Protein 1
Amino acid sequence: MAQPELKDDISVCFDTETVDWEPFTPGSGPPGVRARILRRFDNGSARSAILDLPAGWDSGGFHVGRSDHQGFVISGDFYVGRNALTPRAFFYNPAGSPFASIGSRGGALLLMIYDSPPHYDFVNPGPIKVSDDAFILADAMAVEPVTPEIKGTKIPGFERRVLFKDHRSGADTRLLKVPGGFEGRGPNWHPVHEEIYCLAGDIGPDDKRLLKPGWYLHNPQYGIHGYHEHSISGATILEWHDGEWAINFV
Ligand SMILES: [Fe+2]
């Protein structure tokens, strides 16, 4: 493969609390949900977003999405039909797979990831066939961790939990625990887009920026980043990619 054209230092990093809320009702459903969009597709719709479901909001029946969605419960309570989800729950539903009413009794913050512009349609009552690929993890932290390897060397102190893997595209989502005192191996790039949301602790891609809980980082495809990856006290992050991830050091 020809060497792709690399770009230098084009990562985007911000505190999601600084992002304006906007109404979020993609397709059919009652209003009331608002979103902080973290990253957009070319048409402006959400690739990844934090959704705020107000207390008592309910989608009002079965819906089906035109895109795959993944979600992580950041805080509050959330339900999918009779399944009650609490913080650290993770769920996946592929395009075309209907799902029962979703909502929140006391309010919830969700981190959502869409593989294409989100759009939901009502499903008329009738036989409902949920995809066998759809799943809910009650606690993402309960997934068995693996110690990641970089170029054949295990990284001690790291715990990688793979929450989702799309075997067609190679896209995945990981819950990653990084030990305090971590120091990266220097600038690198990936053949896919990498997005990170910090859940706990601190982690910095370089000496200019330090992610704290609620911070977001987008390392674009072919973008050189990680000039000084480090964590002072350790971190827990969600990290997701839109294709098969690999690391290339510069
Ligand atoms: Fe990276």
Protein 2
Amino acid sequence: MKKRSEIAKHISSLCSSLWVRHYISSKIKTDPLYEGVYLELKDSKRPLMDIGSGMAILAFYLREKDWSNPVTAIDYDERKIEAGNLLIQKGGYQGITLERGDARESLPTHQGDVTILDILQFFQKTDQIKLLELAAENVAPGAKLLIRSGIKERNFRFFITWVVDVFAKCSFWMKAAPTYYPTKETFEGVFGKEGFDLEIRPFWGNTPFNNYLVVIKKLK
Ligand SMILES: C[S@@+](CC[C@H](N)C(=O)[O-])C[C@H]1O[C@@H](n2cnc3c(N)ncnc32)[C@H](O)[C@@H]1O
């Protein structure tokens, strides 16, 4: 099984832009995100839908881990779709569909596991709840909805999370600035009921951000 550093080197080597190469390499090496999601999904035999996938780096990471389930990745940023599809070609990655879609409007038809990673902050509170409910409809019984998000709390980690998201917008890396950060109650309100098993755990790794991994299992 490949190490994180080897995966980072390989995926980033597929990029022609020096900046993107550096971004992907350091993201994979320093952020616990993709490895954490892999550990949650590794025994799943179901297809995955990744909502707000960016260039679909998660999907590439999963392939490098020999995880071969079909992946549908959607994002509303044309530039990322184009760049990601080039990486799919260059990397020879099979079974990954990366297409344009606005999660505010609709989602592709899907039954399986679902991921929503680092995108909720771009949605208003009511849109977040709508997206969470819509995503839950696409989770098959026994499957998981995995969410990584900065969570609004009164601490320095939260401040850093907000500053970096604002910087990402100012540097044009993101199309939008952060609008509203969910609280733990946001998730408890949607999933703290019969039919779901909800776990919210800190997901900081060595990063300074106030990120949590929210694991929702749809009960059979
Ligand atoms: C911080 S990036 C995270 C990318 C990816 N999930 C990851 O963790 O590698 C947030 C992504 O959400 C996308 N996004 C924001 N609002 C969206 C929407 N309404 N529909 C689809 N994608 C959206 C952005 O274009 C961006 O690629």
